[in-house]
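Backbones bend. Shown next:

***
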Amino acid sequence: MGTKKIRITGAQLSFSVGAIQENKSKILNTLEQAEKINSDIVVFPELCITGYPPEDLLLRESFVGKNFAVLEEIAEFSGRTSGIIGFVDRSLEEQTTDNVDRKITNAAAIVQNGDVKGFIINVIYQIIQYLMKPGISQKEQNQKKSFGMKM
């Protein structure tokens, strides 16, 4: 039985914060190039549609809405090559990480053959939170160092 090779393209590009149309053009061009080299999957950076970090732009409903519209346009353009596209999604969770009730979350959409095939929601953040433990400050590190000479 033969093995199937999967070609994955990492789209390590710079996406400007707030420049949704410019970012869309970069994504579409990259998807087109990936098709030409027979890539199976293109992985784009976190929040590539909005640019990272979008910060206070996320407080504008119109900005979040444009992000959804552009995701749909990108999906319509997509072909055989799957694209994993970072965008801002609606959150169904009641709990937020700060005092602002935004009801949005960091997500990625999987696009292929003219459609959105699925979503990956806030997974990276959850993995990082699980794996990372709080560190200690430089001052605390210095206090823990012992000075002396072994004999």
